[in-house]
Design brief:
single chain, 140 residues, mainly alpha
């Protein structure tokens, strides 16, 4: 008789405890791991964006270097006591925004000079202003 009472008490204590434990475990706890979710931006899109950004940066660096490589720019820098090579070597240290802004301005000046809207002295002043901007940005 003692055994039956002990068994009955065990059943009364263990069964509800086991049911409570099973009910507290999330339903998908034993399911296979869900597939990894894609990131907000795919790796290919990120790679393309980085490649496009690098290409735009390089294009801007080349535009500014091209503008500062002309004979008028070279002469203007030397007359103002700036070393043209040091200025050209400092260009890649500029930020992407600074490069884009200066490239747009140098392209605009070249187009206006080619169209005859700017004279050589005016172009030389623009070159000096551009060089001063580059130096100030690099120093700060």
């Amino acid at each position: 008789m003692k055994r039956t009472t002990l068994q009955a008490l065990t059943v009364r204590a263990v069964v509800p405890s086991a049911l409570m434990l099973l009910m507290s475990v999330p339903a998908d706890a034993f399911a296979a791991a869900p597939p990894a979710q894609d990131h907000l931006v795919s790796a290919q899109a990120m790679q393309k964006q980085m490649s496009d950004s690098a290409a735009a940066r390089q294009k801007n660096v080349e535009a500014i270097r091209g503008f500062l490589s002309g004979p008028v720019a070279d002469r203007a820098m030397r007359d103002a006591q700036y070393n043209p090579e040091q200025v050209k070597n400092a260009i890649p240290a500029l930020s992407d925004q600074e490069l884009a802004s200066l490239a747009a301005r140098s392209n605009d000046a070249q187009e206006k000079f080619a169209a005859g809207a700017l004279t050589r002295p005016e172009l030389a002043l623009i070159v000096i202003a551009l060089v001063v901007v580059i130096v100030v940005i690099i120093v700060h």
